[in-house]
Amino acid sequence: MHDDTHCVYGRDGDDPPFRSLTPAVHRASTVVFPTVEAYQSRREAIYDGYSYGLYGTPTARTLEKRIARLEGAEKCLVVQSGFAAIVLTTLAFARTGSRVLFPDNGYETLRPFAADFLDGLGIEAQFYDPMRPDAVDRLLGPNTPLLWLEAPGSVTMETPDVADLVARAHRHGAKVAADNTWATPLRFRPLDHGVDVSMNAASKYLSGHSDVIMGSLAVRDEALYRRLKDVSRFMGCGVSADDASLVLRGLETLAVRLDRSEATATHLAAWFAEQSWVAEVRHPARPGTPGHDAWKRDFAGGSGLFSVYVHDAARARLDACVESLELFAIGASWGGTHSVVAAMRQVPPRTVTPASHVGPVLRFSAGLENVEDLLTDLRRAFAPLAATAAQEGIG
Ligand SMILES: *Cc1c(COP(=O)(O)O)cnc(C)c1O
User: Fold this and answer.
1) Range of the domain at 98
2) Going by DSSP bridges, is the β-strand pair 215-219/197-201 parallel, antiparallel, or unpaired?
3) 177 plus 300 within the same structural domain
4) What CATH number is given to the structural domain containing 258?
5) Ligand 1 test: best mutation among 88, 108, 149, 179, most atoms within 8 Å of CB?
6) N- to C-terminal Cα distance for the chain?
7) How far is the CA of 39 from the centre of ligand 1 (A)?
8) Residue-wise DSSP of 292-337
9) How does pLDDT run across 19-60, given as a tens digit for each residue?
10) Domain boundary residue among 230, 251, 272?
């Protein structure tokens, strides 16, 4: 079966004689047992069965099975946020004295997580340039249990050579975890490329409606799954049945939403590329974006998130233009039905390789609105900038 079928397939919520197409919402804190013996051995049930609402309800298990199928994984674990999934994976591998490698273009909260939290535990966070895999070798060693990557980086949009990074990490005995939020398993399956843990912020495309926060971790190895589940328990991670149900509902339309957002993003990106006040448009499907060849080789398609690098000279009038947009809300999160723009003063901070762009960045998430309406809104809102650019000879 194909991915779009897997998004909706499964009658796991059936409870005969009642039958429906919809997985049931099983709310629970307490789980009850038929015998004292079953109660006594409930610990073992945290992995695949039921022992306590925090460790899994039938609703959460149904969601985990569906995500696992899409990821080509054996097991999936859902937790209360994408970032919780990152933290628990990191802590499942790292000890005091360990070094963990993070990509220089990674999710922004990784830097304060490294500086203000991991550092205090005696865990060294080392950032690396994902586009220079050869420079990674010297950072790897016996005390390096884990390398994180993000494919592509969700602001600067570079697609790394995942298999190359994985080969180098594995040669040194390190596991690899990939933040696959931009692509979703429909566009890229990290585990097929040797990655050990595929992480998704389900708060974005998988849920798809900007109304729930969740993270998922998918793996092929049973022992690894058990380790992650143990750490999830020690950190008190879990999801509510209601939230799991919202993500299950979102998943059913993932394939059509993603196709639509990708197509719209392609149109909008092409429009931006023609504007005199725009320095560069970054989307992995665009030939000029770093790692485009790796994207073309490894990915089944793109998604609706892309970045517009604006000439620094246009900075003064930019905010007013962005604020005058009607169909694009200003916000950081993405992957929903509404178009959103994240307006940044600059490329997020890096420590290994300086950003190639000096100037503001607008990151757009294409929603499900009509593309002509979106273009009309953009043309109108950014007209003052185009006029100024013409006067001042920007571009
Ligand atoms: C949003 C996001 C996260 C964090 O997910 P939350 O569910 O918001 O905690 C991690 N990585 C990427 C790439 C994201 O976009």
Assistant:
1) 36-251
2) antiparallel
3) no
4) 3.90.1150.10
5) 179
6) 49
7) 37
8) HHHHHHH-S---SEEEEEEPGGGHHHHHHHHHT-SSEEE-S--SSS
9) 888 899 999 999 999 999 999 999 999 999 999 999 999 999
10) 251
Distance, CA of 26 to CA of 12 (rounded, Å)? 12
Tell me what the pLDDT averaged over the chain comes to: 95
Burial class of residue 344, CB neighbours in 10 A (0-12, 13-18, 19+): middle
pLDDT of res. 45:
94
Beta bridge partners of 101: 126, 147
pTM for the model stands at: 0.96
Burial class for 207, CB neighbours closer than 10 Å (0-12, 13-18, 19+): buried
The answer on pLDDT for 311 being more than 60 is: yes
Ligand 1: centre distance to CA 215 (Å): 8
How many A from CA of 152 to the centre of ligand 1? 13
Residue after which a domain boundary falls, among 251, 273, 288:
251
Between helix 254-273 and helix 371-392 the angle, nearest 10°, is 20
CA 218 → CA 13, 68, 179, 215, distances in Å? Answer: 21, 6, 11, 10
For the cut 70, the answer to whether the pLDDT of residue 366 exceeds it is yes
Residues 97-111 pLDDT 10s: 999 999 999 999 999
Element (DSSP H or E) covering residue 230: helix 222-234
User: Which residues on adjacent β-strands are paired with residue 75?
Assistant: 219
CA–CA distances in Å: residue 109 to residues 87, 114, 141: 11, 9, 25
Distance 247 CA to ligand 1 centre (A): 15
Residue 30 is assigned to a structural domain of this protein: no
Instruction: Give start and end residues of each alpha helix (H) in 44-197.
Output: 58-71, 82-93, 110-113, 162-171, 184-187
Give ligand 1 pocket residues (Cβ under 6 A).
Answer: 81-83, 107, 150, 154, 179, 181, 201, 203-204, 213, 215
